[in-house]
Amino acid sequence: MSVSPTDSTHSVSLTDLETAILTHYIITSHITYKDVAEDIIVNKLKLNISNGPDSQNILKSQLSNISSFPFSGPLSGEEKFTFIDLFAGIGGFRIAMQAHGGQCLFSSEWDKYSQQTYYNNYGEVPFGDITKDEIKAFIPKKFNILCAGFPCQPFSRAGVSARNFLGLEHGFDHPTQGNLFFDIIEIARLHEPDVLFLENVKNLKSHDKGNTFVIIERMIRDIGYSFDSTVINASSLVPQRRERTYMVCFKDKSIKFDFPQFKGEPKKLRTILESDVPETYTISDKLWLGHQVRTKKNLERGVGFTAFLADLDKPSNTLVARYGKDGKECLIPQEGKNPRKLTPRECARLQGYPENFTLPTSNAAAYRQFGNSVAVPIVSKIGKMIVEHLLKAK
Fold this sequence. Notes:
The chain is of the alpha/beta class and 394 residues long. 37% of the residues lie in helices and 11% in strands.
């Protein structure tokens, strides 16, 4: 990862863990990171810092220009509430919750390319594998909201059908991914945040004939939380048909939480399209012919994918992580030539990211990261209601 605190320390090699600790300390000023971060600063970066009241400001000026990051969040002491960002991806939860005055105290994401995008936008490198105790040890003791769009592969309809076909385990039987939910439970039980704010695929509710969802609800209730859930289609706020399961769980079980309403006309895909898109996004004759042939065959036999031109006056199909491979989920018609794929900026808009969000440098990474992201305006609208309940209860 290309994270260099200062020009004077380019030759210093920091471990992934050290980089996460240092950037978290710079952004949050939190006591959890102070001793280890200052040890790195003094003994590895060889920088002199004072112990006076201005040491944090001196440190920030020496190590990072926080203003260069578009979404570094509220300053310590100015926040309305605190939260942590697990399975953070590129920060869809973070950007939404910061907009309501929240300070992110801890982030975790194992994918290196997503970590880089996260750093470029928030000035903070997420910690890695949240299943490891050495990572969990850096979660601050107290915070208000646990946010997690936990990995959906074991529960998604596509993932389950593929695993059945291959004879693999899925859901809670999966030896690694399915167990990641248990890490959320462990962290919630230990830290007792006021709220759990979770997101997963629509199919979570029906997986294993509903048994998976029953287990999730029971485990959350067993550690002392309320449990409210709903499936929301994002198309009233972004031009994309994206249905996801959202769960909101309060430690104070007397709080009655009703999800906000998501009504209104579906957004039109054409509203987020760029003009003068480079020819590199137009799919080849071979790929377009292949799409048409396979679509015809699959329609005749009633199974398999289909690839049609997108209706620009309706929302797009769901953006998925594999979109960059061939673009079949959303092919933009072009007059007199083959259709094209969406650009990375258009994908960012489909998920509701601001225009000043710094895109990944790789198109392949961009498609994967935005395909895996939450729809930011949906998280923001639910988050606003959560925060209102939280602040009212204080």
